[in-house]
Inverse folding.
């Protein structure tokens, strides 16, 4: 009886997942093809500007690029071609950032950096934010919790980018404790050596810190309000009436009940977090999707841009799916379909 | 009216937030006057009006930038731009979100399912890449179009909150009472449900404004803003591009950043204040 | 032993607000004797739940205990073991001194730690609207035994057995232990909570409106459960409800509360037959009776007063058909006018002469002649 409800839930969730990917896919595609402005024209113009040619685009150039960019044929034809390319061969087409390197290569090279930075930062902030927020909400007005709350309010206000700026200024420029840019020291090649890994950690600290500081504050504040409203619940009163020790009440009655809504909130906030992280990457020249996107945008590299948009959608949707699949384990009400 | 004043008395956070925000709005409204006072009849964007990289002085309270423009004047210009976009986008977004939330929450059924899936879909998509792409292809969007664009991506947030609220309000007994006494559904929505939604509307509005300004900031800071005005994000972008950090020209970065933080601070204080007023147990946890 | 189990003296519980102090409980005196079922009745808003919360020390801001004592005279625990000797106490855990245990102590003044230790072991609680009192993400069994594990030396298995035992007393099958709250009906949850209150064999069980919002059949089951419990282990039960019919079936003695004060106390049979206080009279007269002659339903005129400002003198005087001038100025004290029967009304006690007058001609059969 339980298993069937869970199975139904999982199947439904997976169906939504695939449908959404497909839907976003199509929307993004149409989006790019239908925006006003002629990408080809803009591209050729920018090419001209870059290469000091004054001649008008020749017919061959137009045809060549049309084909390369998959812009030939009617929209449905383009769509089908694109879908088959991406689905079956993972081929986003050649990029312009590094022509003729296929866009997907660039993207997949950048993806691990973004996921690593983001994934780690998000998990750390979520866990710490909930624990600290829970404690702050649980303890009434003490100087410590007031100070923490004020800190959190302050930090959650500031856009991640600006926090990153401040950190950059403080630690990289003034104190020179941590490096200013890139993901690893410029003189090393990526390898699994200790030196490299240390370098990665050093370089990743500031960007991660920027993301973490802002996110932790957010989670802390939301957990705190959640805990405060849980404190008003009848079952809390009952637990106190039973004379249970405070630590017991905090973990089993308060935190566990706060966990569920926060898990859902995490799934929702993923898109938002990604936005902020992309910007932070550009500041540090961190070789993730953010920097790649900005470069691609600069030269109107349609394929790369499309690819990045799609990949980020897929990444967020997947993370959201994983979270949703974890829900039945946390909330018994879902388990029994209640 | 007295009821609203009581709100302010009950939450200092709310009062402070509203105060700062209104102050900022006031500044942006009288901005033309202020600019005139600073630099006379000149266009603040005009290159070469003044000396380059002047440190702050009485003539130029925040100094000048690389192109010899008065930073304070630019700041005021940018403030107005950010605020207008933020407010417009915020209002439109909250409006759409509320309508959708009301419909899905109140009527339910298949309309609910469809709209909810749409909402969830948009929620999950990281919107920045899409916005970036749009801005690239559509250069020089005016304030209104930009605002609508931002609103198009942010309404799901309000829709979600409002829907949850409507769902719980719908089950309250006074709604049943209203229905039993023959009120039409629309009347019920406006007379029974809306008043109870007001605090959530306030919170959604403030959050939408923040979101819009944030998104727009994000675009500008990579250099995609409108070409003819200095906006807060663009100023930061330029400042970094000129190597202000290494040159020690803090004002160029700190000023726009500071103003931005102030805007967000005031709006979030309003949010927190509203939360506190309607959930009084939160009071006393910040020492305010 | 002649000492009551619980002796509440002059209890006042106020709620602080921007508009003033809400005097929800304003001078309550009552005694609960051992091994009886004591009922507390009154309209919504008269303060009865607040009295309970004060006893359990669960009053939260903006409420606070303004003054008064709640003396608790527990039997020493050895006297109070379950017939089969199974209730084990953790040794050396109580921070209550032997002196306190011997002579009783004031619950109002008890510190946090001793309070935590006497909770559930000595006094347990069945809250109002128990449906919401269960943690939605914990199994019922876990919630039943966590207090047991905290307060006694039971092992987990033994605690589960004990839990199954008490479930049986209230008429629930053992599988309830493994269920989640949302899988049970309201009545089942209520009974589970009543069972949980019994697990450590406390000396006092306080039940706040355990039958409200439940249908009649479930009500019956719950009342039977409570009676069973009392018979099984001789626990004292304090039962709060606005439903007089339920009191009639269940309790031994009944106290009527109005506007934050007790107005009448007596055994339930005598109270039903001959209520003295005009408020009690109206209360009992307004109970619809099945069968018999059709009489006009009487209701009580007016509304319960706003708790911010009680009327001067007797609080019932604006709604009392027998109000005299005296009533508007002087508050009538709660006085024992017959053995075991207390009333707070000027009709039966003259404050100046201290004379008791049970047969007031004005009040024959509850009607002013």
């Amino acid at each position: 009886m339980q298993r069937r409800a869970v199975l139904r839930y999982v199947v439904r969730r997976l169906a939504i997942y695939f449908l959404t990917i497909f839907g976003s896919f199509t929307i993004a595609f149409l989006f790019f093809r239908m925006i006003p402005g002629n990408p080809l024209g803009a591209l050729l113009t920018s090419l001209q500007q870059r290469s000091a040619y004054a001649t008008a685009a020749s017919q061959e150039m137009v045809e060549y690029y049309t084909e390369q960019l998959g812009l030939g044929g009617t929209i449905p034809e383009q769509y089908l071609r694109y879908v088959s390319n991406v689905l079956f061969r993972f081929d986003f087409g050649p990029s312009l950032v590094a022509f003729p390197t296929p866009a997907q290569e660039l993207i997949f090279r950048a993806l691990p950096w973004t996921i690593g930075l983001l994934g780690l930062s998000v998990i750390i902030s979520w866990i710490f934010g909930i624990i600290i927020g829970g404690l702050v909400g649980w303890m009434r007005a003490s100087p410590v919790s007031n100070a923490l709350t004020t800190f959190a309010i302050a930090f959650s206000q500031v856009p991640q980018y600006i926090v990153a700026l401040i950190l950059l200024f403080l630690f990289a420029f003034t104190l020179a404790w941590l490096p200013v840019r890139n993901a690893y020291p410029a003189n090393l090649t990526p390898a699994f050596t200790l030196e490299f890994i240390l370098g990665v950690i050093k370089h990743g600290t500031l960007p991660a810190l920027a993301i973490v500081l802002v996110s932790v504050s957010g989670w802390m504040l939301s957990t705190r309000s959640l805990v405060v409203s849980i404190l008003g619940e009848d079952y809390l009163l009952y637990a106190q009436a039973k004379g249970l020790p405070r630590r017991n009440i905090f973990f089993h009655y308060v935190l566990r009940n706060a966990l569920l809504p926060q898990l859902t909130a995490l799934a929702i906030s993923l898109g938002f977090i990604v936005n902020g992280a992309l910007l932070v990457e550009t500041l540090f020249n961190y070789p993730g999707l953010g920097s790649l996107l900005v470069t691609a945008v600069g030269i109107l590299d349609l394929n790369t841009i499309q690819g990045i948009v799609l990949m980020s959608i897929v990444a967020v949707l997947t993370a959201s799916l994983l979270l949703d699949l974890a829900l039945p384990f946390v909330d018994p009400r879902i388990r029994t379909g209640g | 009216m007295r009821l609203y004043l009581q709100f302010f008395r009950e939450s200092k956070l709310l009062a402070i937030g509203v105060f700062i925000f209104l102050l900022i709005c006031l500044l942006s409204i009288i901005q033309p006057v202020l600019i005139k006072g600073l630099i006379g009849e000149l266009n603040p964007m005009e290159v070469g009006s003044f000396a380059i990289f002047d440190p702050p002085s009485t003539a130029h309270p925040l100094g000048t930038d690389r192109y010899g423009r008065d930073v304070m004047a630019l700041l005021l210009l940018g403030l107005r731009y950010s605020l207008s976009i933020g407010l417009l986008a915020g209002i439109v977004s909250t409006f759409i979100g509320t309508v959708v939330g009301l419909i899905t929450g109140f009527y339910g059924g298949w309309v609910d399912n469809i709209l909810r899936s749409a909402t969830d879909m948009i929620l999950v998509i990281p919107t920045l890449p899409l916005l970036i792409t749009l801005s690239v292809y559509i250069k020089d969007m005016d304030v209104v179009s930009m605002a609508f664009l931002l609103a198009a991506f942010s309404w799901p947030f309000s829709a979600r909150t409002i829907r949850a609220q409507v769902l719980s309000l719908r089950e309250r007994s006074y709604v049943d009472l209203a229905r039993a006494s023959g009120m039409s559904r629309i009347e019920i929505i406006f007379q029974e449900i809306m008043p109870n939604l007001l605090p959530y509307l306030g919170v959604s509005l403030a959050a939408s404004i923040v979101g819009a300004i944030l998104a727009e900031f994000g675009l500008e800071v990579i250099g995609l803003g409108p070409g003819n005005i200095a906006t807060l994000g663009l100023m930061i972008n330029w400042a970094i591009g000129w190597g202000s950090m290494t040159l020690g020209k803090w004002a160029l970065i700190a000023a726009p950043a500071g103003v931005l933080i102030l805007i967000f601070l005031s709006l979030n204080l309003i949010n927190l204040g509203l939360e506190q007023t309607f959930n009084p147990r939160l009071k006393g946890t910040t020492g305010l | 032993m002649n000492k009551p189990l619980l002796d509440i003296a002059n209890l006042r519980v106020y709620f602080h607000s921007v508009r003033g102090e809400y005097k929800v409980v304003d001078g309550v005196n009552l005694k609960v004797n051992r091994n009886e079922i004591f009922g507390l009745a009154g309209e919504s808003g008269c303060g009865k739940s607040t009295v309970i919360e004060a006893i359990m020390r669960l009053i939260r801001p903006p409420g606070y205990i303004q003054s008064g004592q709640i003396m608790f005279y527990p039997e020493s625990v050895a006297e109070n073991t379950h017939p089969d000797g199974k209730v084990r106490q953790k040794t050396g855990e109580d921070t209550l001194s032997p002196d306190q245990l011997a002579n009783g102590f004031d619950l109002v003044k008890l510190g946090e730690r001793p309070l935590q230790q006497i909770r559930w072991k000595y006094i347990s609680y069945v809250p109002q609207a128990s449906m919401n009192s269960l943690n939605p993400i914990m199994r019922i069994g876990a919630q039943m035994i966590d207090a047991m594990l905290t307060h006694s030396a039971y092992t987990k298995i033994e605690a589960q057995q004990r839990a199954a035992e008490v479930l049986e007393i209230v008429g629930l099958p053992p599988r309830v232990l493994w269920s989640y709250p949302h899988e049970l009906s309201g009545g089942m949850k209520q009974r589970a909570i009543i069972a949980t209150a019994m697990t450590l064999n406390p000396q006092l069980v306080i039940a706040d409106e355990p039958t409200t919002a439940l249908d009649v059949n479930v009500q019956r089951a719950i009342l039977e459960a409570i009676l069973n419990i009392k018979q099984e282990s001789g626990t004292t039960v304090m039962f709060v409800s606005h439903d007089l019919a339920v009191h009639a079936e269940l309790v031994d003695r009944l106290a009527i509360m109005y506007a934050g004060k007790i107005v009448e106390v007596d055994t339930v049979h005598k109270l039903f037959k001959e209520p003295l206080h005009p408020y009690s009279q109206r209360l009992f007269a307004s109970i619809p009776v099945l069968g018999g002659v059709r009489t006009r339903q009487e209701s009580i005129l007016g509304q319960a007063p706003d708790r911010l400002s009680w009327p001067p003198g007797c609080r019932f005087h604006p709604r009392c058909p027998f109000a005299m001038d005296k009533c508007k100025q002087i508050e009538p004290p709660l006085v024992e006018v017959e053995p075991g029967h207390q009333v707070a009304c000027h009709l039966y006690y003259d404050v100046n002469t201290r004379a008791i007058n049970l047969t007031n001609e004005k009040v024959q059969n509850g009607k002013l002649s």
Q: What stands out?
A: Confidence is low (pLDDT under 50) at residues 284-288 of chain B. Chain B has one domain: 11-42+64-283. Chain B touches chain A through 46 residues (CB under 8 Å). Residues 91 and 232 of chain B are 21 Å apart (CA to CA).
